[in-house]
Amino acid sequence: MLCTSSFQAIHIPYATKKQLAVHVKRIASLVPDLYVADVDIALSELCKDDQKLEQILLGREFHISLGRTVPIQVHQIDSIVAMLREKLQSQRGYWIEFNKWDVFVNDDLTRTFLSLEVTGGGLQQISRQIQIVDEVYRLHGLPEFYKNPRPHISLVWALGDISDTLKTAVSDLGRSQNRPQKHIFMCKFSGIECKIGKKSFNICRDRGQ
Questions:
Q1: Residue pLDDT, tens place only, 114-172
Q2: Catalytic: which of 11, 23, 75, 152?
Q3: CATH number of the domain residue 153 falls in
Q4: Residues whose CB falls within 8 Å of the CB of residue 122, separated by 6 or more in sequence, listed in order
Q5: What is the maximal distance between C-alpha atoms in the chain?
Q6: Bridge partner list, 194
Q7: Do 143 and 137 form a contact (C-beta atoms < 8 A)?
Q8: CA angle at residue 32 from 28 to 33, to 5 degrees?
Q9: Helix ranges, the chain (H)
Q10: Domain count, the chain
């Protein structure tokens, strides 16, 4: 079985969707054969219809990973969930700022992702949550997260390692913007869930909700 720990329901604000759609279309014009993350639809097809592009690419829920996707034993499930709840139950609300376009490649170099990274507000809180998940994983003999976590959400992907090509396109996008932005968009922390197989376990909610 697989276990992933992630934020619940990060929604991109409506006012931001049109702006992001324009940027993604610009990227698509520079880099061929891109696909929408999770739904695996060709980006070139969506770019023909702005409404579909916004709806399918940006209208879904996004999640920030707090732990690796790892195989776990059935008998470990209750212990992992209980320990995560105990250690994460006191989480308070905070704002998450997505400040930077960046490129990530998976461990086996089979896919490259265009993502929005958290480098400002919320980074400290997310990093602490990753440390807590690591503690729980370690106690259950599971692999910890990457040494230098870079919290992000992925929008599109391509086959193989095309990181250089995508980074060039991102740089071109940055040069085309009239002025630097403090952040691309913001959303509020809502809670944490742990997905194991087909089940989702609520770990905590923002106490302000």
A1: 999 999 899 999 999 999 999 999 999 999 998 889 999 999 999 999 999 999 999 98
A2: 152
A3: 3.90.1140.10
A4: 94, 95, 96, 97, 151, 189
A5: 55
A6: 5, 201
A7: yes
A8: 105
A9: 14-30, 43-46, 50-52, 58, 77-88, 123-139, 163-176
A10: 1
Nearest to 123 by CA among 166, 183, 180: 183
- Structure-block tokens of residue 116: 């929005």
CA angle 129, 135, 140 (to 5 degrees): 130
- Between CA 95 and CA 121 the distance in angstroms is 6
Instruction: Say if residues 80 and 72 touch (Cβ distance below 8 Å).
Output: yes
Whole-angstrom distance, CA of residue 118 vs CA of residue 94 = 13
The b/e string for 132-168 (b: 16+ C-beta within 10 A; e otherwise) is: bbbebbeeeebebbeeebebbbbbbbbeebbbeebee
Nearest to 11 by CA among 208, 205, 157, 190: 190
Q: Is the CB of residue 62 less than 8 Å from the CB of residue 2?
A: no
Q: Domain range spanning residue 11? A: 2-205
Verify whether residue 152 is a known catalytic residue.
yes
Question: Is 63 one of the annotated active-site residues of the chain?
Answer: yes
pTM: 0.87
**Two structure tokens written together for 2:** 């697989």
4: its two tokens: 């992933």
- Which position among 11, 63, 75, 183 bears the catalytic label? 63
